[in-house]
Design goal:
Helix content is about 95%, strand content about 0%.
Length: about 80
C-alpha cells in the first residue's frame, strides 16, 4: 500500500470516529432543546392558568360589588 493510500485510509478512520462524537453531541443538543421546550411550555401553561384564575376571581368580586353599590346609591 502506498503512503498516500495509508493517509487516506487514516483520514477516513479518523473522520468516522469524529462523526460518532459529533452524533453524540447532536443527540445531547436535541435532548436539551426538547427538555427546555417542555419546561418552557409548562411554565407558560402554569403562568396563564394563574393569570386567568386571578382575573376570574377579580371579575367575580366586581360582579358582587356592583349590585350592592347600585342599591346603596338608590337608597342614599
Amino acid at each position: 500500500m502506498s503512503r498516500a493510500g495509508a493517509d487516506v485510509r487514516q483520514q477516513l478512520l479518523n473522520g468516522a470516529a469524529g462523526s460518532s462524537l459529533s452524533d453524540n453531541d447532536d443527540m445531547v443538543k436535541t435532548i436539551a432543546i426538547a427538555v427546555c421546550s417542555a419546561v418552557a411550555y409548562l411554565a407558560i401553561v402554569v403562568g396563564l392558568t394563574v393569570y386567568c384564575s386571578i382575573r376570574l376571581v377579580r371579575a367575580a368580586a366586581l360582579r358582587k360589588q356592583r349590585p350592592g353599590d347600585a342599591i346603596a346609591a338608590s337608597h342614599g
